[in-house]
Design brief:
Layout lengths: L2 H5 L7 E3 L9 H10 L4 E6 L10 H9 L3 E6 L11 H18 L6 E5 L6 H22 L4 E6 L1 H9 L5 E4 L8 H5 L6 E9 L5 E7 L3 H4 L2 E3 L5 E3 L33 H13 L13 H13 L16 H7 L17 H12 L14 H9 L12 H16 L11 H8 L5 E4 L13 E7 L2 E11 L2 E9 L9 E8 L5 E6 L5
Parallel strand pairs: 1-2, 2-3, 3-4, 4-5, 5-6, 6-7
Antiparallel strand pairs: 1-8, 7-8, 9-10, 11-16, 12-13, 12-16, 13-14, 14-15
Helix pairs in contact: 4-5, 5-6, 12-14, 13-14
């Protein structure tokens, strides 16, 4: 069969998308048609305005009562480059979450976001990727654990999956779109739209789709009469939940674990539980290294470094470097700082920083706890007003305590932002070391380091020792594996020239 013939093959279609409410005239006839064709899932729209194409609470209940699962897609235009970008991603997320709340969509289920155009690679990089980064960061800020999906070309689906920005891929019916042929023949799509558009005698226009994974894996759901949603096929554990704890050491099994490796379910469950434990998901602990697990592994790899401070390869497979980063313990033993090249203020600052080692959040990845709240309040933020990353807040709190103790003015600008402190701090720090100047001769204990994680996010910590081309650090909002938003204050080992380094600032000693 030719590619065209294979792409248009509709045998086994089991999902439909339509832009008309099933509560509208002709809905009963259309529903019977869907049942006759053994359709299992109905894809319906969220939009910024409650237009006729947008799903309503009554329709969501009807779909569920009739035995179908729901899979929502957010699309309000989403056809030109100007419809995308980071800020539009943030806006789209808030609008989508508004509708999710309206119909009772449960955490752990999926919201798809449409990219309904064949954009060039440059536009994908400059507009589409930032759009989905905005979606991801805004869901974190809102404390919501929806899975993120994309509808679009093969190139868009592949790019966003490789960057760990989506967990669900819905391939558009436009077979001429960039990258669609290659993505079609891969094992990575979860849902694909089948040409051509159809129209039922009831008046409903619809598209046929083939869902190749279970409804639970793609994040479809139903709602009851009280607007309470449930994921079809069982619950999915949200990131930061409390799975069955791992006991003892977890040695690397000696080979790469992947969809094709054929490992025992018990080993896959260990990986799945650990991903949830360190804040990734939503994910089902079922022992199946399917699309859901592979995409969550990609998400982890995209946001984390290996134990040498180098970026992990984003391939959805758990090799030795990914395993070590995933199962790293909470920090290493703190060395005794070499203070021979450190001022008295710098020494006192290090003592205060090290006194906080082992402080943890009350519930992992919620960015809250009595001491964590104190760090955040010190910067002028209200902990209950949002989900704030707190690595810089921890350093600022330590600086406040030092200056109170020594009765001196605080040279550290009051902010909780990594990039903001790096920018403002260069005018008040006594020593500034840019990334290209960082080496064992210019970096010393007591300095703060700053790294850029993209999308306006970053991470920072305090140097406590220099050992050749590496440093020992103490950091807030981290763990032993280098998660950007970990759950405590821990000691870590990094390269001086770590990945995405901005530079170092010393507020306590002049060069």
């Amino acid at each position: 069969m030719t590619f065209k013939e294979q792409f248009e093959e509709s045998t086994g279609w089991n999902t439909v998308d339509t832009n008309r409410r099933l509560t509208a005239s002709g809905g009963e006839e259309f529903i019977e048609f869907l049942k006759e064709n053994r359709v299992q899932t109905v894809i319906r729209y969220y939009a910024s305005t409650r237009r006729a194409k947008t799903i309503s609470p009554d329709e969501a209940k009807l779909i569920s009562r009739e035995g179908f699962a729901i899979l929502p897609v957010y699309q309000d235009n989403n056809r030109t480059a100007s419809d995308f970008g980071e800020q539009n991603g943030v806006k789209s997320t808030n609008r989508a979450v508004e509708f999710a709340n309206l119909i009772g969509q449960p955490d752990g289920s999926t919201i798809l976001f449409a990219v309904d155009q064949d954009f060039t690679a440059d536009i994908v990089d400059s507009h589409i990727v930032p759009y989905f980064k905005g979606i991801k960061s805004e869901l974190v800020r809102l404390g919501r654990h929806f899975r993120i999906g994309v509808y679009g070309s093969g190139h868009v689906c592949r790019t966003l999956m490789n960057k760990g920005l989506v967990q669900v891929s819905w391939l558009s019916m436009s077979r001429g779109f960039t990258g669609t042929k290659d993505f079609f023949f891969s094992s990575d799509w979860m849902l694909r739209q089948i040409p051509l558009d159809k129209k039922h005698p009831s008046g409903f226009s619809y598209d046929r789709n083939l869902m190749r994974v279970p409804q639970s894996e793609i994040g479809a759901f139903v709602v009851d009469e009280q607007d309470r949603g449930t994921i079809v096929g069982g619950s999915i554990d949200p990131p930061g939940s409390e799975p069955e704890p791992l006991t003892g050491t977890v040695p690397f099994p000696g080979h790469t674990i992947s969809t094709e490796s054929g490992d025992e379910p018990s080993l896959i469950q260990v990986i799945q539980r650990r991903l949830i434990e360190v804040g990734y998901g939503p994910l089902t602990v079922d022992g199946d290294f399917g699309s859901m697990t592979r995409n969550v592994v990609r998400d982890f790899q995209a946001e984390n470094d290996d134990l040498n401070g180098e970026a992990l390869e984003v391939d959805g497979k758990v090799g030795q470097l990914s395993w070590e980063a995933l199962f790293a313990t909470d920090g290493i033993e703190a060395p005794v700082p070499d203070v021979s090249d450190v001022s008295d203020l710098g020494q006192a600052f290090l003592e205060i920083c090290l006194s906080q080692e082992g402080v943890k959040e009350d519930r992992p990845f919620k960015n809250r706890g009595p001491r964590i709240d104190s760090y955040i309040r010190a910067t002028g933020l209200k902990p209950f007003a949002g989900n704030f990353a707190w690595c810089v807040a921890y350093m600022y709190w330590c600086a406040v305590k030092l200056c109170e103790q020594k009765n001196v003015d605080n040279p550290v600008p009051r902010t909780a932002g990594v990039h903001r402190l790096w920018q403002l701090g260069q005018s008040t720090a006594l020593t500034v070391v840019d990334d290209d100047e960082a080496n064992p001769g210019t970096v010393r204990p007591g300095m703060m380091f700053f790294i850029d994680k993209g999308n306006g996010q970053g991470h920072a910590g305090v140097v406590i020792a220099v050992e050749g081309d590496r440093i020992k650090t103490i950091e807030g909002n981290t763990n032993g594996g280098g998660v950007r938003e970990g759950h405590g204050v821990f000691v870590r080992s990094r390269k001086i020239q770590m990945s995405s380094l901005l530079g170092y600032l010393d507020f306590w000693r002049e060069e």
